[in-house]
TrEMBL record:
Name of the molecule in the record: ABC transporter substrate-binding protein
Alphabetized UniProt keyword annotations: Cell inner membrane, Cell membrane, Coiled coil, Membrane, Transport
Domain (STAS) ranges: 448-536
Organism of provenance: Polyangium mundeleinium
Compartments in which it is found: Endomembrane system
Family annotation (PANTHER family): ALIPHATIC SULFONATES-BINDING PROTEIN-RELATED, BLL4572 PROTEIN
The keyword Cell inner membrane appears for this protein: yes
Coiled-coil region(s): 399-436
Lineage, broadest ranks: Bacteria, Pseudomonadati, Myxococcota, Polyangia, Polyangiales
UniProt superkingdom: Bacteria
Length: 565
């Protein structure tokens, strides 16, 4: 039996991906199929319709899915946290560094999902700074891989980016880091490893082996030094689990490098302690109430215990020597675990509703409900991968027309995704080809004008071939820099193999001669052909002409005052 596991390609999934890359699943006798999901809603659909055995999923989304807070409930279990910390508020470069939440009033901000730690930590940070996150800003859901593009297009002014996309945007100059999630709550939970009902109910031994493999990966990641974590990042990227273009950013995030020159925080940007403590679930449920997602009152502790199963991961962590015996709650300021609802009601901008609206009764007949369920089930299959629909038949009624339209949409999406993959493969091949061409051009430029010290204070610059404007500028720049850095007294330019009758080549010779004098070096020309000599003789400024000698031995041996102009 192959276990089907879905994940979103962010650094939070690192323990799951590292376990796969290192072969931990095979060592436990497990066959695992890992697939990327396009969004967190896709992950939720797969869990809800029992299409996967386990999933990398946001901690609040797992809680909302398990309790049916957002649509259909699914009897899932959170068996491990995947990570702590790991998100950063990055705003567009045009806004500059944001020093206080009030500077974001009126802005549009992105979060990975409405049920995410990024959403709740951002709301809490804004509220502490006097900004009502429900009124003073606009918060939109954006899948993490799309966040950089949306920021570049101006669709959002900033976002709570998970790694490695936060570092990727900052490195490329597309945004400015303003606040890291650990500044709000150091050691906060983020993502989880959640199990579907069939796995933990029907195959507990496989569920235990899967959990053990992932926690062992977490223990190994926790023990690594920065260089080890860089190697781990390269391994999961090499296996194709995360995009190649974010490899450098992933290495920095895992290794704990400063995000930018102004980053005041220490190296603990990502942690991998595994225990999903019930206290975390209590806090999350209270935040759902605070921001209007969950009306009425709940038994916070009982509800959290129904989803968050802490003991198996804690026992594994203790056996592996990990320091994960208690929840990290030092930064949960102003919150009471004895009275969660009272704490959020006393917090600023609380939008809790005391009464839950009644659920409207279903007026559809049972056969129609069954057909709708089949439609939803088929849509859930799309999140795992476009299914092979084959030939489908539909009844001639309203639901049949809906099924037909959805069937056509699924086929169109499958074709579009196939075309997109082909386009991306071609684009990637084109990018690699451009990189190879640029590397070849750089090598040609280097070989076409190599600078070599031949005597103390004397550099030799042989020129070969045609010299155009771009090449002339490059030669001039490198020659001047080398003369300055090496304190050269003389630069011998051998033009035996160069074409010196073009305007650009003649201009280069004159500019280079004048510029070298300004940095204290003399320019000598060697190997001037009769044609080049006639072209140089037409210069309107004879004083700017460099000294010329017949061959290299004369240039090396003759004293300065013995060389004729």
């Amino acid at each position: 039996m192959t276990l089907r596991i879905v994940y979103v390609p962010i650094a939070c999934s690192m323990p799951l991906l590292y376990a796969a890359a290192r072969g931990f699943f095979e060592q436990k006798g497990l066959s695992v199929e890992l697939r990327r999901a396009p969004s967190w809603d896709a992950v939720r659909r797969l869990l809800t319709h029992d299409k996967v055995d386990a999933a990398h999923v946001l901690a609040p989304l797992a809680l909302a899915t398990g309790l049916g807070i957002d649509g259909r409930a699914a009897p899932i279990r959170v068996r491990a946290l995947q990570n702590q910390n790991g998100s950063t508020l990055v705003v567009a470069k045009t806004h500059g560094r944001i020093a206080a939440p009030r500077e974001l009033a009126g802005k549009v901000l992105g979060v990975p999902h409405r049920f995410s730690m990024q959403y709740y930590l951002l709301c809490d940070w804004l509220a502490r700074g006097g900004v009502n996150p429900l009124q003073d800003v606009t918060i939109r859901e954006v899948p993490p891989p799309r966040m950089p593009r949306w920021l570049a297009l101006g669709r959002i002014d900033g976002a709570m980016f998970p790694e490695p996309f936060a570092q990727h945007v900052v490195d490329r100059g597309g945004g400015v880091d303003c606040m890291q999630s650990r500044e709000v709550w150091q050691g906060h939970p983020c993502c989880t490893l959640s199990f579907g009902p069939r796995l933990w109910r029907e195959r507990p031994e496989r569920a235990g082996a899967l959990l053990e493999a992932v926690v062992e990966a977490q223990a190994e990641l926790e023990r690594m030094d920065p260089e080890g974590r860089r190697a781990a990042a390269g391994l999961v990227v090499a296996r194709g689990y995360l995009p190649v273009e974010v490899c450098g950013a992933l290495e920095k995030g895992l290794a704990g490098d400063p995000m930018s020159p102004g980053d005041p925080l220490g190296p603990e940007r990502l942690g991998f302690a595994p225990t999903p403590f019930v206290e975390y679930g209590v806090w999350i449920l209270a935040q759902m109430q605070r921001w209007g997602q969950l009306a009425g009152d709940v038994e916070h502790l009982a509800a959290a215990r129904e989803i968050f199963e802490a003991e198996p991961a804690r026992e594994l962590a203790a056996r592996l020597g990990m320091n994960d015996a208690a929840p990290r709650l030092d930064d949960v300021r102003g919150f009471s675990f004895d009275d969660p609802l009272g704490a959020v009601r006393a917090a600023p901008f609380c939008a809790h509703r005391a009464e839950r609206p009644p659920s409207p009764p279903c007026s559809l007949p049972a056969p129609a409900v069954d057909r709708i369920q089949r439609i939803l089930d088929r849509l859930a299959d799309m999140a795992w991968g476009a299914p092979d629909l084959g030939g489908s038949t539909f009844e001639d009624d309203e639901l049949g027309e809906l099924e037909r339209a959805l069937d056509e949409s699924i086929r169109a999406r499958a074709f579009a995704e196939e075309a997109l993959v082909e386009h991306m493969e071609l684009e990637e091949a084109h990018t690699r080809q451009e990189a190879r061409i640029e590397a070849q051009h750089a090598l040609i430029r280097e070989l076409g004008a190599p600078l070599a010290p031949v005597l103390p204070g004397v550099l030799l610059l042989p020129l070969v071939g045609r010299i155009d404007r771009a090449r002339a500028a490059d030669i001039e720049e490198r020659a001047l820099r080398a003369a300055w850095e090496r304190s050269a007294r003389r630069v011998i330019v051998d033009v035996t193999g160069a074409r010196l009758i073009d305007d650009e080549a003649l201009a280069l010779v004159l500019r280079l001669s004048r510029a070298l004098r300004l940095v204290g070096a003399e320019c000598l020309l060697v190997g001037v052909s009769p044609e080049a000599a006639r072209a140089l003789a037409t210069s309107h400024d004879p004083a700017a002409l460099p000294r010329c000698v017949r061959d290299l031995s004369a240039a090396l041996g003759a004293p300065k005052d013995a060389i004729p102009r």
